Amino acid sequence: MTPHVIDLPPVVGLPVVGTKATFPVRRVYCIGRNYAAHAIEMGHDPDREPPFFFQKNPDNLDPSGDFPYPPQSSDVHHEVEMLVALHSGGRDIPQGRALDHVYGYGVALDMTRRDLQGQMKKMGRPWEIGKAFERSAPVGPIHTVDSVGHPDTGAVQLKVNGELRQKGNLNQMIWKVAEMISYLSTYFELAAGDVILSGTPSGVGPVARGDRLEASVDGLGTLAVRVT
What we know:
Elements: E1 13-16, E2 19-24, E3 28-31, H1 36-41, E4 53-56, E5 61-62, E6 66-67, E7 76-78, E8 80-86, H2 95-98, E9 102-109, E10 112-113, H3 114-123, H4 128-131, E11 137-138, E12 143-144, H5 145-148, E13 155-160, E14 163-169, H6 177-184, E15 195-197, E16 205-206, E17 212-217, E18 222-227
Parallel strand pairs: 3-15, 5-11, 6-18
Antiparallel strand pairs: 1-2, 3-4, 7-10, 7-16, 8-9, 8-15, 9-12, 13-14, 13-17, 17-18
């Protein structure tokens, strides 16, 4: 084995319901504006257009239940999403076979430094500074396909301090899971360990230190997160 000049970084592993083994994360793809109502609230046309994706880093995923309020921002927003975890991949995957590559599903939050993202949009620059910061994606455990099937309908919601902020349904996604996988595979070679965050419904808004967030997707449990 060829030695490395520095220690290998740790592998990010997500908990899996029913086992002590973890799901190792390779890449994180996030689809933007995948619910019509959210597209409208962000000032965009909800008509179906080609999907677009941005990325977070594997070590942005955090199952700890704590979200440290990030630096350099005074406007951090919550976005509840269904997480899709792949056990295999490839190129040019047909839609009809796309779900064969899914290992399981979970609940995630795409926390966003909205003020910094807005600045980047105005300047025509990438969004990473607003999206891919440390611990920006709190996640719950993965539920295997064997246990939950392929969820395509059911409530997606988020409460802040017990108050309902976001509420949608998986059946409102503009681009379905199979379509996302197939589309991504025409631009990237997907592989085991890849994760897709499937978009958020309307109602996104700011969080403050001390807030308690409860994110849920029907059949996938509730992710409780404290903003610290």
